[in-house]
Description:
Elements: E1 2-3, E2 19-25, H1 44-51, E3 54-60, H2 66-75, H3 79-82, H4 98-104, E4 110-113, E5 142-146, H5 152-160, H6 196-208, E6 216-221, H7 252-257, H8 260-267, H9 287-317, E7 324-329, E8 353-354, E9 356-359, E10 367-374, H10 378-385, H11 400-403, E11 414-420, H12 428-433, E12 441-447, E13 450-455, E14 461-464, H13 482-498, E15 507-510, E16 513-516
Parallel strand pairs: 2-6, 2-7, 3-10, 4-5, 4-6
Antiparallel strand pairs: 1-10, 3-8, 3-9, 7-9, 11-12, 12-13, 13-14, 15-16
Amino acid sequence: xxxxxxxxxxxxxxxxxxxxxxxxxxxxxxxxxxxxxxxxxxxxxxxxxxxxxxxxxxxxxxxxxxxxxxxxxxxxxxxxxxxxxxxxxxxxxxxxxxxxxxxxxxxxxxxxxxxxxxxxxxxxxxxxxxxxxxxxxxxxxxxxxxxxxxxxxxxxxxxxxxxxxxxxxxxxxxxxxxxxxxxxxxxxxxxxxxxxxxxxxxxxxxxxxxxxxxxxxxxxxxxxxxxxxxxxxxxxxxxxxxxxxxxxxxxxxxxxxxxxxxxxxxxxxxxxxxxxxxxxxxxxxxxxxxxxxxxxxxxxxxxxxxxxxxxxxxxxxxxxxxxxxxxxxxxxxxxxxxxxxxxxxxxxxxxxxxxxxxxxxxxxxxxxxxxxxxxxxxxxxxxxxxxxxxxxxxxxxxxxxxxxxxxxxxxxxxxxxxxxxxxxxxxxxxxxxxxxxxxxxxxxxxxxxxxxxxxxxxxxxxxxxxxxxxxxxxxxxxxxxxxxxxxxxxxxxxxxxxxxxxxxxxxxxxxxxxxxxxxx
Length: 520
């Protein structure tokens, strides 16, 4: 840990429960934060939050894509326990979650945006429309302003502002006018004050003015999630020549040949998923086109950061800044051209390394933590900061010690994540690899020096990050690394054994009644 560990200003309403503001910015990569040392991206409002709070520089998602990543955040459980494997995998109704826990504390947890939680079909009638989408809402939330992928609520708001928002998603995000190159900096038909982020920030600020009791709000921003387009001035804020060198092999063919999973992933990564109307595979974009996409992604980060500034000002104007716990993070990250890929998934760090900043009254300010933290840590942390106690069977651990300048001696020395690439409805992966769904998955253990990737049905991977930070040389079959591979395979197995579901395993019925073991 580094920085000034002095506490934040005291609350003006001593003894009152804090407000809680939990913000996720979808697909924000952890190194794309100026407070974390990025050489190009400017995030002044996130940086301002970090100056009054704690920046966790090695924070990692538990899974990808959106639904699995958010399941880890909301339940405090690894994917191996919550079993949300893909977008569309239902979340078992029995699972505890942070919204239900906050409600039990007396809050009315209020959502702005989306949670991507597919409901348990066993709890719904067969004809329920909620069973035709993965964009359901986490049980426990009061939905103040929904904003699912179709974005109809935002589109109707645009129309009230005189914008011709008749095109549906994703066409609304195409460049205005015609004749643009395949990857373009052309602006959309909406301006900087009319983005989905601006809409969501405004709705939260309006709601904030209605509150006269301690509140709990979750703002789930879509940005900087694709499509890669952003209004002026953000579209020209960063040059194509700005940014670090891409981590990648000499060409996509060499990258794809390095492991069967990469070959598969590249074959199914389509351009139109990132820029509407474009045909072909992402891997075929040129170096220049990848650089332009990266510049647009940086601009999208700065756009959502500008809306964070509006929210900070709204909190101060309402007199709520000092009394509000703020947690700023993402669900998963973005490949951003590394390894000839965009989006998220697989095993590379770029898909899982996230920003995390926490500001809490009485906690340290301006501190940077370099220990490994994980998405499953957020639920117990938020609950503790709100005045509650976490169940003893959660996989995550509260980050509260770091917020008070402490360094737990038994803290983890590595990060873990999982990726399940099954395709239950279409069986794409299953047919491609000739594997059952249950074997279409991987698990990662990543320490300071090494990264081991274990596939249930494909060859393993081992990277020496000290010698190969770009993860380009798999040494799993190198005899010189045989002992390392065995050690990390054993560590991964021990991690899975430790985190088998503990909900009732920590309970015993005795002649003196029910005994529940406290968390160690």
